[in-house]
Amino acid sequence: MSNASILAGETRAIRRSRAAAIAWCSILAGALSGGLMGLWSFDGPVPTPDWIGDYDSLSRRFLRLAHVAMFALGILHMLVARQITEAPLRPDIDRLGLQAMAAGNVLMPTTLIAAAVWEPLKFLTPIPMLALTTALAIAAISAVRNYQGELR
Fold first, then answer.
1. 113 neighbors 149 (Cβ within 8 angstroms)
2. Which range marks the domain in which residue 11 is found?
3. Cβ(139)–Cβ(85) below 8 Å
4. Considering its fold, how many domains does the chain have in total?
5. E strands present in 1-152
């Protein structure tokens, strides 16, 4: 095994472990945010903060969506990182996919929480959506190319 291939393997492992760290932190944040919101949900022991509003208010919907996004994007982040590192395309494209997924994983819940506080910030959600779509497209291309290679 050449030094270049050993270095490439180490780089893939580092990228995957970075992605896993971000993903697990996202999942943990989802659990913690759910526990916090549970304190005032369904006549919990803490009154609902005034700025959050009723159950159907837009602020509360944004908070619930951010909570779910933390879990879903954390899991998706692990899947994207696994796909991209196991069936790499090109180093620059792989890096873009992993960085885009990390950005989307952090920015989408953050943007949703910010929009819960100040509604006009909801118009920033296309930014993390674009990052997530980029990561998913790269992972999909990686999967298709890997599948096509297996057919040969």
1. no
2. 3-151
3. no
4. 1
5. none
